[in-house]
Amino acid sequence: MARLLIIHHTPSPHTQAMFEAVLAGATDPEIEGVEVVRRAALAVTASDVLAADGYLLGTPANLGYMSGALKHAFDTFYYPCLDSTTGRPYGLYVHGNEGTEGAQASVERATTGLGWVKAAAPVVVSGPPAKPDLERCWELGATVAAGLMD
Q: Fewer Cβ atoms within 10 Å of its own Cβ: the N or the C terminal residue of the chain?
């Protein structure tokens, strides 16, 4: 069975809503043969990352950068996973009021360094997520998960 790892930092109601929509898409009953594992960015380990076949990353934009928690996660697993996870798919969702471009770019630099492959366009939301934003989050989760089906 394939494993999809959601690594998230969810400090606000807006990022929580986006996380829940991503999770709902990833766990849609029509997607079979994919185990979805959730880890807070401050709790994820290199073993979690190595055991996964694909990734969904969620972060708020903080001062034009990914959250410190997600940066800590990358710092924790980057070198232990550098050669072993190349080519694996990932998706990204970002919430912020400003500086979302920098947050997206910082995550994309880290995933490029790891050799991960973008499986879907990132979902970037400024301000409260509206219904169409949450639908895009659902689609992101479902797309990345469905890509891991056998």
A: C
CA distance linking residue 45 with residue 77, whole number of Å: 6
Among candidates 44, 50, 6, which has minimal Cα distance to 145?
A: 6
Would you give the distance in Å from CA 26 to the centre of its chain?
11
Q: At what angle do helices 13-26 and 131-146 cross, to 10 degrees?
A: 40
User: What is the rounded CA–CA span in Å between residue 128 and residue 73?
Assistant: 26
Category of 71 on φ-ψ map: left (φ > 0), alpha (ψ -120 to 50) or beta? alpha
The yes-or-no verdict on residue 125 having pLDDT over 80 is yes
How much is the pTM? Answer: 0.97
Query: How many residues in total does the chain contain?
Result: 150
- Token digits of residue 132: 């169409």
Helix 68-81 with 100-114: angle, nearest 10 deg: 10
